[in-house]
Amino acid sequence: MAAINTLLIANRGEIARRIIRTARELGLTTVAVYSDTDADAPHVREADRAVRLGPAPARDSYLDIDKVIRAARDSGADAIHPGYGFLSENTTFADACADAGLIFVGPGAEAIRLMGDKAAARQHMAQSGVPVLPGFDREGADDATLIAEADKVGFPLLIKAVAGGGGKGMRAVDNAAGFEEALAAARREARNAFGDDRVLLERYLPTARHVEVQVFADNHGNAVHLFERDCSVQRRHQKIIEEAPAPGLTEAQRRDVGDAAVRAARAIDYRGAGTVEFLFSPEGEFFFMEMNTRLQVEHPVTELITGEDLVAWQLAVAEGRPLPKSQEQIQRHGAAMEVRLYAENPYQQFLPSAGRLEQLRWPEQVRVDSGFEAGDRVSDHYDPMIAKLISHGGDRDQARRRLVAALDDLAISGVHHNAAFLHRVLSSPVFADAELDTRLLEKHSDLMTPAPADSDLVAVAAAGAVAQRPATGNDPWGALPGWRPLGQKRTLIPLRVGEQAHTVVLDNDQARVDGGEPAPFHLRRRGTAFELHWGERRLAGHLIEPRDGDARHTAVFVHGQDYPVEIHPARESDRAGGQDGFIAPMSGTIVACHVAAGATVAAGDAVITLEAMKMEHTLRAGAAGTVERFHVADGDSVAEGTLLVDFNSLDSETEAQ
Ligand code: MV4
Question: What angle is formed at CA 655 by the lines to CA 652 and CA 656, rounded to 5 degrees?
Fold first, then answer.
């Protein structure tokens, strides 16, 4: 038994915060480490102490073993939690911890080394009765041997780098004719990526699900699993959606894969948290793929179905205590689902999108694990994951629908992100029906280009919000000039959604956009949240005004994505000066200018009237102010969008100071 009093977390972002949270609950002193760009990061604020490692590049900070060990020594830490990524599966680091008398929260270096060697891992598993696909994994085989063995393995097959993992250095080969060339390419790729060109061969399972089992083992001979997760929905080996339990398994399959994973952990005398990955064939057979010797990104779905704190379990094992529960005591409740929100642009080949998170509003109905707060920067030095959203429900569909609702309830601006893409996949029939397969996104590539929100609907939502504002008062939108002709509840609101100009006509409960068909609309709002029904169409999201209180600009967020809206857009030449303008809501003829230029008017006073289609429309002051100048006169014909009057509302003058 070696009690941990002070824990250094050798990581950043959401996982550092996640570990700090549990460590605090357990009464440990926490030490954060940080690079220069992370000096003000949330994980640094939340730890009891923080130690600077170095400049932003990971190799000079979070990957610098000497600096991390020194930080632990200097801060009096007795243990290091590596999180995931960075040094979490680095045997040199695990050894360095041991040499420095520090507890490494993870398995021994030997288990990391063994599972890092994909050939040795396969051999170990096969010997322990864990199913593996037909293959060839003898070390040191030359090309001639591999060519001969490929025929025995059979085609299609995969050439996998022994030092690989996560899909790196992998080549599929359909037939014997293509083998030699693919072998050369795989070796070259592996040599470049890992400095190690050893490969193994394995029969290729073209249609399969990724099912992984969470295992735990202690120093007292106990080894258990905490059920499985399905992580089939991936894009280029990047997991996107993870869930637990894996849907559609029979209870026998679930038990068998759990037992196999525990056998795998026992086979290598494993300690701590581990994940055993399997490929599941459509027939329900499963085969060992690889084992990850760390806490995984997707561990929260297991936490939500079991109610267990996996970081607390890791710390228990690291202190030499027995596992908190036996296999029989570990229960499963309902279903959990996680999506990874990335700062990347689905409309530009998913390129990463670094930048400042201007707006950041988290949904309330799900667990959010994030390393960011509003105003923080997503740095291009590190992983672009903004957050994980994790839901729990009585069954899979409830968890799924909660996650869809959570994405509707999200608002992020400042960087591109994949929330609309996640929303699209979660809402798709293939995913809803759990037709899971590692090639789901390749087969349904339309899911990868989410349609942006319909600009007409965004326009109606923004216009509806403007119309609902009181005409006077301190409300900045109330200070805008109104377009409410006498005796009618008819309002014309010109606006721009992004670069797209629209004119919305609200007529009692009807809304019409750009001369289209009117349809009944209903806008419900609660705080910043809105739900719009317009005819048969529906849009939900948030309406958030910029912090500087600019009355003309607002942002409508749909699926977390911002659609900037400019109300009553002035012509470019009239943008400066902070003046409000009266703009012709439609083409027509000026029939009356009700006041003289320079006149002061009260809110609701008529300013100018135009006529179109034999109907008069009087534009009235939305707030008290000064009519600075008429750009038109009686009898003028004007086009829609023409600036008619320069108007200075008193409210906006006050605001300008
Ligand atoms: C496979 C396979 C099919 N057959 N092995 C991808 C990552 C690495 N862990 C191994 N991988 C695969 N190994 C055999 N024999 C298909 C994949 C694979 C995959 C696995 C899980 C999730 C997504 C994937 C995407 C492409 C390929």
Answer: 90
